[in-house]
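Margin note: ligand = 6-O-phosphono-alpha-D-glucopyranose.
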Amino acid sequence: GQAAKGEYDHFMKKEITEQPTSLAQAIEGRIDPQAGRIDLEAFDDGAFADVGSVQLVACGTSYHAALYGAFALRDAGIQATAVLANEYSVAAPPVDDETLVVAVTQSGETADTLQALRLADAAGAETLTVTNVVGSTAAREADDALFIRAGPEIGVAATKTFSSQVVMLTLLAQRISTDLTGEASVDLESLLADLSRLPDKIERVLEESNAERIARQYEDCVSYFFIGRGLGYPVALEGALKFKEITYEHAEGFASGELKHGPLALVTPQTPVFAIFSGQEDEKTLKNAEEAQTRGAPVIAICPDDHPAVEVATDHLSIPDTRSELAGLLANVQLQLVSYHAANLLDRPIDKPRNLAKSVTVE
Ligand code: G6P
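Resulting structure:
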C-alpha cells in the first residue's frame, strides 16, 4: 500500500524530514571510511576500467542531480556532461563504445529519459540507471542499475531522492576514477568519513532551521532568485524549481556570475536573492550577491555561521561546516524547507501542484 503521512501535514514535509534516514540507507554497506573503499554491489573492481566518458541524462530535479554528478565526475578527472533527456535526440554529444550513459531517474518511468536511454543504447553506449524503483522500466532496460534506496516518494516535488541521487553519483565518480587511474581523485578516507557524517548534519539543519521565518519575511515579494557557483549552481536551479513548483511564484536559478549578464535588470527590493556558498570561489559569489543588494534586493546567504557572507547578507540560513563537495546538499535542504513553508503560507496543494505529475510518461 501507499506510505502514510503519519504525523505530517504533507508527504513533502515527511520526505524532507526523512533525509537523514534515506541517505544513511543510500550509503549503507557501500562505503567503508576506514578502508577508503566504495562497494557498488554489481560492479567488481575494474568494472569501469574502459569508461572513456560519461553522459548523464535526466529531467527535472533528477537533471539537477545529474548536473551535480557531472561536476563530481569532471572533478575526478573524468570527461562528463549532463544532458536534458528531452534534448538528447537533437543534441546528444558523440557516443562510442567507451561512453557510459547514465539515466538518472527517481521513478525509472519518465518517457523522455527512457527515450534517451534507448537512443544511447542503439548508438552503442554502455548504459546504467541510477533510480529509486526496483523493477522500473529504466532498471530493466539499462545494462546495469544502481538503486538509491530512498523509499517511496509520494510528493510530486522530488526532495529526498535528489540528495540520494547526488550521493550515489559522488560515489560513482570516485569508483570510476579508481578503476581508471588506480586511485580515487581525492583522499577517499576523508570523503567517505564526511559522507558518513552527512545524515547527522542534515538532522541538525532540520532541527535548527529558521526557514519558516525566512519564508514569512519574504512572503509578499515578486520574484525569487537563487544563485550559486560550481556545485552551488545545480542547487540554485533546484532551489528555484522547487519554489516555483509548489508556491506558483516566479523563481529562477542562475550561475552567480551570470547575474550581471542580464538577470540583474530584474533585481529590485521585491526580488530576494538566495545565495548558495559551496566553498568554491565564494568571494566572487559574495560580490555578485552584493551587486544585487546594492540595487535593493535582500540577500539571504546559505552558508556556515562563521562565513564572511553572514556579515554582508540581509539574512542567513545556516548550514553546518562540511567539505565543498557536500555543502550543496545541506544548502538544498534549507531551500526545500523555505519552499515548503512559503507554499504552506500561500495554502497551496503542496503534494499535488496543479498541472504537474510525479512521473511524466509522455514525451
Ligand atoms: C516530473 C516530476 C519531477 C521529476 C521529473 C523527473 O516532472 O514532477 O519532480 O523531477 O518528473 O522524474 P524522474 O522520475 O525521472 O526522476
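The CA atoms of residues 302 and 331 lie 6 Å apart.
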